[in-house]
Each structure stands twice: as C-alpha cells, then as structure tokens.
Specification:
There is one protein chain. The protein is an alpha/beta fold. It has helices at 3-11, 15-27, 37-43, 62-75, 97-102, 125-139, 155-162, 176-183, 202-214, 238-253, 257-281, 286-293, 299-306, 316-321, and strands at 50-56, 80-86, 112-118, 144-150, 165-170, 191-194, 227-229. The longest helix is centred in the C-terminal third of the chain and has 25 residues, at 257-281.
Amino acid sequence: MGLPDIVAAARAGDRRATARLLTAVENQTNGENGIDASEVARLVTGGDALIVGLTGSPGVGKSTLVSALIAAWREAGLRVGVLAVDPSSPFSGGAILGDRVRMADHALDDGVYIRSVATRGHLGGLAATTGAGVRLLEGLGFDVVVVETVGVGQAEVEIASLADTTLLLLAPGMGDGIQAVKAGVVEIADVYVVNKADRPGADGAVRDLKAMMSLVRREPGEWRQPVCTTVAAESKGIDDLVAAIGKHRDWLAEGDRLALKRRQRAAAEIRARVDAALRERYKVPEALAEAVADGETDVASAARSVLGDTGQTSSPSHRAAS
Ligand SMILES: Nc1nc2c(ncn2[C@@H]2O[C@H](COP(=O)(O)OP(=O)(O)OP(=O)(O)O)[C@@H](O)[C@H]2O)c(=O)[nH]1
Ligand SMILES: [Mg+2]
C-alpha cells in the first residue's frame, strides 16, 4: 500500500491506517516503515475540527467524561478523535489499561479513534508531538479532536495552546479549586467542569469557583467561563457541557478570534520544533559544564562559546537581538 492508499483508508475510518500515520507524524519518521512524516503532512492538510483540550488532576474523571462526550457527539453524527496524552511515559501506541476499559463502549465504532500518546523523550516534547497528531486527525476529517492530559506541570498550558476550547475538570473534595488557582491553570480554561457532582461538596465547589470568577474583571465582549456540573459516570450534565463548548466555539468564530487562535497554535508548534532543533544543534559539552562548576569560566562566556560566539565579533544589532 502506498501512502495515498493509507491516507484514503484512514479517511474512510480504517483504524490501523490512522495509527500508522499518527506514529509517523509523532516520531517524525524519515521513510522508516515506508512512511515519510513530511509527506504525510503535505498530503493530509486542512479540515475544520473542533479541538477540545481536557485537563485536570489524576482520577478526576477525564476519561470517563471523554467517553460520555463521545457518545453525545456521535449522536450528533460527528466523527471524534481522542489523543490521551501521558506526559510521563515514553511508551506509546496502545491505550492505557484503564482508558481501554472506559472507552471500550466506542471500540467498534468506526467514527471514533482513540489513542494514547507518550511525549517524554520525543523531539519537541508534548507540543510538537501532540500538535502533529491533532493536525493529522483534523486533516483526516475528524469533526472533533479531544486532547486529554493529566494536569501536571507545563502539560496543561501546552495543551491549551493547541486547543480551541480548554476544559478544566475538577472534583469535590480534592482541594482542586485551590490547587488550580495556585497553578494558574484557571487562566487557561474556557469552561470549568465540576465532575462527580454525585459526591458531597459539589455545590460548594461550584459556589467557590463562581465566587472566584466574579472577582475577575472583564472587558465587554470578553468570554465568561461557565461552570458546568457533571456526573460523568452516569452521563449526567453532558448536554449542557456540549452546549457550553459550542457556545465558546461560536464566540471564537466571531470576528477573527478563531483565526488568531489558529495562528497562535501554529506558532506554538513551530516554536516547539525550533526549540528542539536548537537543543540538538547546540549541545553543552561536558568539559564546559565542568569548567563552569570549577569556577574556571562563567556561565555567560560558556553559553557564548556553545553558540560559537566569542563575544568579540558580535555587532551591536546582534547584541540587541539576544
Ligand atoms: N462518583 C463518581 N465517580 C466518577 C465519576 N466520573 C468518574 N468517576 C470515577 O472516577 C475514577 C477515575 O475516573 P477516570 O475517568 O479514569 O479519571 P481520569 O481523570 O481519566 O484519571 P487519569 O487518567 O488517571 O488521570 C473511576 O473509578 C471513575 O469510575 C462521577 O461523576 N462520579
Ligand atoms: Mg484518564
């Protein structure tokens, strides 16, 4: 099978074909396994997917919620692709065991594609690997692409840079609200979801979130993050959440907000690749690190020597740019 055949099969819903293409773009293959990643990127372009980022603490119910959302979107006739990102694992390709069980409902549906993505050790990290995957699924004709990631460290900020609409999932009794505020995650979310509303404390969590948001000043026309309540395990509150996501999309579609978002997303992806390429090109020699540690030279001089810049030849404009 040539590449155009694989692409055609993937567009028609062939899971194995989709998996092969994803592996190629995630690993930036250069013709290994018969697939060249940049050729895939040239062949599979365009599309107009709704890209939803979903983040939250471990165990808050992200995968359960995604499964419920898939059912709602499928009901509306939409094709759904899911990338479950595990920022800590170097393994990829299969689904994480728990997710496989939870998403088993959709395993036989050709309109759904679910995959876990490992980003550790990949060139360019999460943004480059996941960005390439999102772009591919969108180009293959998926109407909705969901990126699920555990809310740790930098991961959720990077996810938000790739998504049109970012959902922050919280659960009562996890101290999540306060943690989210501390971590600054609150600022990147477009829609808050208090899941496990069947548990005590859900009303309090919703109240706290709303109170917190009433303190944020907004210009007229600016997006006001809604707070949705769900019981993902029982598919409750899903319609309201789908509606809230749709509202945010409509808001984005006004003026040039969506176009701007897409440009920012492209910039984030390019930046990730450039950063990775620079790290590859400018390796820090062991001996140089030793020299700095031993006080034989200073950090700034060492950095200049890695960059091949002795400091004597640099022009004023060069200095101003750095
Ligand atoms: N009571 C209750 N339990 C829920 C609800 N939603 C999910 N759960 C349970 O919470 C547990 C964790 O759910 P997951 O969907 O795996 O959570 P996750 O956020 O994807 O977890 P990680 O991928 O490990 O970060 C499971 O046992 C679910 O059955 C809910 O609305 N109410
Ligand atoms: Mg999960």
